[in-house]
Amino acid sequence: MKILVAGFTHRLLPFVGLLAVGLVLAGSGCGKKAPSRPDTGTPAKTPAPAASTPAAPQEDKVVATVNGMHIMESHVQRRIDVKYKPTLAKLAAQSPDLAAQQERMVRQSVTNELVIETLLDEQVKEAGIQVTEEDLTAEMTKQLATQNPPMTIERFKEAITSQGGDFQAVKSALWQNMKYHKLMESKFRASLTTTEEEAKKYYTENPKIFQTPEQVRASHILLSTRPTEPNADPNKVKVQAKKKAEELLKKVKDGADFAALAKENSDCPSKDQGGDLGLFVRGQMVKPFEDVAFALKAGQISDVVETDFGYHIIKVTEHRDPNTLTFEKAKADIIEDLTQQKMRDASRKYIESLRQNAKIELPSTNPPGMPLASQPMIVTPADANNKK
């Protein structure tokens, strides 16, 4: 269990908003409630350094200069296009004025990101820090293996691409972040420690973190009721899907291999894992699916269950009761996570010191001061109305 540091890119040090990418995308699937679209990083065929150059291209505006290195308008726009274009386009269709306001905020945030990246890239180069393609592949493989359910790099790539993301951009962002992480490790890791007393204090003061709710691990076969042809009769599609689901259920009850049937017939991406959805708690799945799954015991198989996604056959493979993790079992993770928190605090101070000591030139239209980059909040028209 990771308490303070969780998720794919977030196990590394998330210095810039660009790095909020990846697994929320890949975790989407048939029985689960739909996640929001993730952000993606700068597109590149292979991992490449941050977008900053010593000289401006022709007819390209300089938006910031960091220790003599130019950050161009084209760099900012490319980052915006990759990370925010779909969201801003949708917002523009609803409220052009609000979209323009949000784009100005995004532009400032992205400029700040690129300033910080330029400062860090200078330090990475000076320290001679390298991250190879093999390092990157190993880190991706390791982190994807910890997901629920585990994923391969290829499956992760398919999930990102299918939802409009840029897999190479995700790789580039992770590659860049790994370099920054190695830089901070080299500067601070040896001097940062966490005692058992600190870990015990954290455990005592945060009891809810160590309480695990009831969990179920289930596999399923989904027969989708969503027409794949524009002129298809929805009612006919639904009847056919239910009929096929009932036929598959009979095969399962007659002893057929559930995972094999899922791989051959399921309309959910989880079919690649034999229908395995991993462990989940209440609230993660749509309610009809959840109600049946949590009512089953390990080894039991449901009847055909209907949800908005279609017809499901659910097999529960594990059912865990609520429990509390003991301090002894949690201690190692607490110490590591608290140490990582100290690392993040030290890293923020270090980045701020780089900024304070750098020569940063910004157009007069930019507001003074360069706060550490953060992910801007895209406000929808509904959000704006609620604030009134």
Structural write-up:
- The protein has about 400 residues and is α+β, with helices and mostly antiparallel strands.
- Helices cover about 50% and strands about 15% of the residues.
- It has 2 domains: about 10-195 and about 330-385, Triger factor/SurA peptide-binding fold, CATH 1.10.4030; about 215-320, Chitinase A, domain 3 (Roll), CATH 3.10.50.40.
- A 4-stranded antiparallel β-sheet has the order 5-4-7-6, with helices on both faces. Strands 2-1-9 form a 3-stranded antiparallel β-sheet. A two-stranded antiparallel ribbon has the order 3-8.
- Strand 1 and strand 2 (about 70) form a beta hairpin.
- Helix 7 (about 195-205) crosses helix 11 (about 325-355).
- The longest helix has about 30 residues, at about 95-125.
- Residues about 1-30, about 35-50 and about 365-388 have low confidence and may be disordered.
Brief summary:
With 388 residues, this protein is an alpha+beta fold. Helix content is 48%, strand content 13%.
N/C terminus separation = 41 Å
Which regions are unreliable across 5 or more consecutive residues at pLDDT < 50?
A: 1-29, 34-51, 367-388
Helix percent reads 40-55%
Give the integer mean of the pLDDT values: 81
Count of runs of 4 or more consecutive helical residues: 12
CATH topology of the largest domain: Triger factor/SurA peptide-binding fold
Name the CATH superfamily assignment of the largest domain: Porin chaperone SurA, peptide-binding domain
Task: Note the quaternary state here.
Answer: single chain
Question: Which sequence of strands runs across the widest sheet?
Answer: 5-4-7-6
Our count of domains comes out at: 2
